[in-house]
Cytochrome
Amino acid sequence: MTQPRLAQQTPYGRMYARAEGQDPQVPSITTVIGCQANDLGGWYGYSAAQALAADPQLPEAMRDARRRRALVNHAAKAAERHRDRAAERGDRVHDYCEQLALQAMGQDHRVEHARETLAEHQESRFADSADQWWELYRPEPLAAEITVWNSTVGYAGTLDLVARIGGKVCLIDYKTRGTDRNGRVKAPDAKVVTQLVAGLKAEESLVDAAAGEWQPWEFANAEVLMAVAIGDTEALSVQAVPDQLPAHWFKFCALAKVWARSAEIEAAGQQLRAIVPPPLEHHPVGRGAMAVTVDLKEPQTQATEESNSQ
């Protein structure tokens, strides 16, 4: 997948700059969505247990405490290794899909090279699924890997594909997914709706990264928000339910505020400081514990204060 030229990894997550060489200003769409709580404790635990149980060194390590600890430490990172491998595979699949779009638009492309890269990792079946999707849906690409920006809320992101399908303009996001026990590709997570809505609500799109040139977002009236799950057996297309889009947009705006406050707190540095007990003569009840009361109520408006005083 083409790395967005304006995206940078920062201590606050992935962020975007307005032009090459400039400091990042706003978080990425996925960074904002990442502020949502996501409990993966069960998956991490299962991955570690599975990795330990399947390790061929386990029987011998049971008689050696040092080797046993080493296996446990290795198994504890099984979920992270799985996540990283999935991300790398996703990049390769996204790159292939992008090259298909560039080829369809008559631009320079690396379709053959991208497919060869998938083959080197025994992932050719993902390319086959992507090809099947293109044959079935016959998209007419309008833009591929297009970076968008929203100054009002404060975020940016890169959309996988904008295409006309069946006469309708569609915003499309690819998701590389595994298969279930029946050999069917797993559906995308509902969070993709939030991601697509944020793309729809963009205000500008990038024209020239080096010059920092942007233009008004021309696909704000896209009729279909679509996620395409690409697996090694098939591709599954799903549409965001139109009636649910406002709720996802409000949720995204709320998460953007959470990110902003979290970044503000992180930038401020130390949040706690040590305090010592007051001198004994200041204790009204001898050596009792010091109590501090902090009023965290919302500040009242002048109108409310006047009403309360009457």
Observations:
- The two ends are 65 Å apart (CA to CA).
- The chain is about 40% helix and 20% strand.
- The first strand starts at residue 7 and ends at 10.
